[in-house]
Design goal:
With about 425 residues, the protein is an alpha/beta fold. It has helices spanning about 5-20, 35-40, 60-80, 90-100, 125-130, 150-160, 175-185, 200, 255-265, 270-285, 290-310, 335-345, 375, 380-395, 400-415, and strands at about 20-25, 50, 55, 80-85, 105-110, 135, 160-165, 190-195, 215-220, 230-235, 315, 325-330, 350, 350-355, 365-370. It has 15 helices and 15 strands. The chain binds D-serine (DSN).
């Protein structure tokens, strides 16, 4: 068969972009070669609707073994009692959880997107805000920390069926025990979406939500460093409190409801090649070298946040407990959009991001979000974080000075050359 030169040329260019640039998007990482090999494997050819041992297609005996290993490794990694490894993404995982637990029109309470939450936690432009009735909590303006009093006040006033915690741009740990206490009082289930810090949580470097939250979802490609995908976990299986029924009309334990909500509820055939890659990534995340990596991700984030603070940058909440930080650029007289564009010209990739109480639109924003998961995979350490902050500061001081941006790009390439990715 003729090789598709056009697409493979573009993939080579994308590899070069990744090799040469500094990847600081907090939700991105570099999967290992064996994870990518599994993701690009023959398992992509197999239909396997259903679960291991209970499929709607023949010939599933081998993918059954692969999926069973993925489930067992996920359970071991997160100390969970049950896992479903089929969600194609974090959004799909959340959609399945909500389908299993809620009826259209039910109230949900999530972390405001404009304060650092996620689209699938009730945003009006997402299914979660269209099918369900969303309410929100945010962060306190004076501290940048989650406003737990507000969460409690709204929960007890509105009595939502579900409280969602977790974020895509929040640099601090969560008080899951408190949220569970409020949820018990309000009669709600708690969903923790740990998509961003799940790798750090898995290795005990942040508070574990599984003992407190009814259901936990995550993506597999951020700090966890696997293939692009989703995962649902239960610390402990439990009876569904509202007697919700499976598509067959049966009232079952939550694990069965969730399995049915993934397939046939929201998905068709599972991506067995991605499930194979998830199994490989979970195996890697159980290793000693991943533990060292996860520790370094946190050290690097702290070194980076301190270096930004020293240069007069305003980090929301004043620092970080995890792999990311959100920077309010208003005191630097540059918008998030202008900063993102200028940094891309220097081959430094970040994303513009709303900051809490932002006065600019989501297309412009007052901030940028920065994470250390990807540069840490390359082997960079604290001193390199300080160099990166100096490079970013050079660009943001003169974003329109092509000569200075070009000079920074040269420094970026000489730094990344020392930390080859896939060679
Ligand atoms: N797009 C992801 C992120 O960047 O955090 C969330 O879905």
């Amino acid at each position: 068969m003729k090789k598709d030169k056009l697409i493979f040329k573009l993939l080579d260019e994308e590899q070069q972009r990744q090799e040469e640039g500094l990847e600081l998007i907090a939700s991105e990482n570099f999967a290992s070669k064996q994870v990518m090999e599994a993701a690009g494997s023959v398992a992509t050819n197999k239909y396997a609707e259903g679960l291991p041992g209970k499929r709607y297609y023949g010939g599933c005996q081998i993918v059954d073994e692969i999926e069973t290993i993925a489930i067992e490794r996920a359970k071991q990694l997160f100390n969970a009692q049950w896992a479903n490894v089929q969600p194609h993404s974090g959004a799909q995982a959340n959609a399945a959880v909500m389908l299993a637990c809620l009826q259209p029109g039910d109230k949900i309470l999530g972390f405001d997107l404009s304060h650092g939450g996620h689209l699938t936690h009730g945003s009006p432009v997402n299914f979660s805000g269209k099918l369900y009735q969303p309410f929100f909590y945010g962060v306190r303006q004076d501290t940048g920390l989650i406003n737990y009093e507000q969460l409690k006040e709204v929960a007890l006033r509105e009595r939502p069926k579900m409280i969602i915690c977790g974020a895509s741009a929040y640099s601090r740990d969560w008080d899951y025990a408190f949220i569970r206490q409020v949820a018990d009082e309000a009669g709600a289930l708690v969903l923790a979406d740990i998509s961003h810090p799940s790798g750090l949580i898995a290795r005990g470097l942040l508070t574990d939500p599984l003992p407190h939250c009814h259901i936990v979802t995550t993506t597999t490609h951020k700090t966890l460093r696997g293939p692009r995908g989703g995962l649902i976990l239960l610390g402990k299986d439990f009876e569904n409190p509202w007697g919700l029924k499976t598509p067959k009309g049966e009232v079952k334990m939550m694990s069965a409801l969730l399995d049915a909500a993934v397939f046939p509820g929201t998905q068709g055939g599972p991506l067995e090649h991605i499930i194979a890659a998830k199994a490989v990534a979970f195996g890697e995340a159980l290793s000693d070298s991943y533990m060292k990596y996860a520790l370094q991700v946190k050290l690097n984030a702290q070194a980076m946040a301190n270096a930004f603070i020293e240069k007069g940058y305003n980090i929301i909440s004043g620092g970080t407990d995890n792999h990311l930080m959100l920077i309010d650029l208003r005191n630097k007289n540059i918008s998030g959009k202008a900063a993102e564009n200028a940094l891309v010209n220097a081959d430094i990739t970040v994303n513009k991001n709303m900051v809490p109480y932002d006065d600019k639109s989501p297309f412009v924003t007052s901030g940028i979000r920065i994470g250390t998961a990807a540069v840490t995979t390359r082997g960079m350490k604290e001193k390199h974080m300080e160099q990166i902050v100096a490079l970013i500061d050079d660009v943001l001081a003169n974003p329109e000075d092509e000569h200075s941006v070009k000079k920074v790009r040269k420094h970026v390439h000489s730094l990344t050359e020392k930390f080859p990715l896939y060679k």
